[in-house]
Amino acid sequence: MPCKKLKITGVVQNVGYRAWAKRLSSYVGVKGYVRNMPDKSVEMVVCGADNLVTVMINAAKKGPATAVVKNVEVEDVDYDVKNDEEFKIWI
Predict the structure, then answer these.
(1) CB 21, CB 6: distance < 8 Å
(2) Is 18 noted as a catalytic residue in this protein?
(3) What is the mean pLDDT of the chain?
(4) Domains of the chain by range and CATH?
């Protein structure tokens, strides 16, 4: 299962970004996680079919209505989703 790691920058913390990403991931049907980073960015790992991962990447560029996304960096990543039953919010 292909996985991508996203680094989302801008006004993306304390605006409901992680909860929004979890809701969207359930709707889209991808696995992975989302978490706040110390540098005020949000990191998201998304795993699933290529077209579903693309949907999440495109959505991440907009984020929830309360966010102001400046940039989304995307890279391939190895992530073992075997034990993940759902997309998770990491704290």
Answers:
(1) no
(2) yes
(3) 95
(4) 3-90 (3.30.70.100)
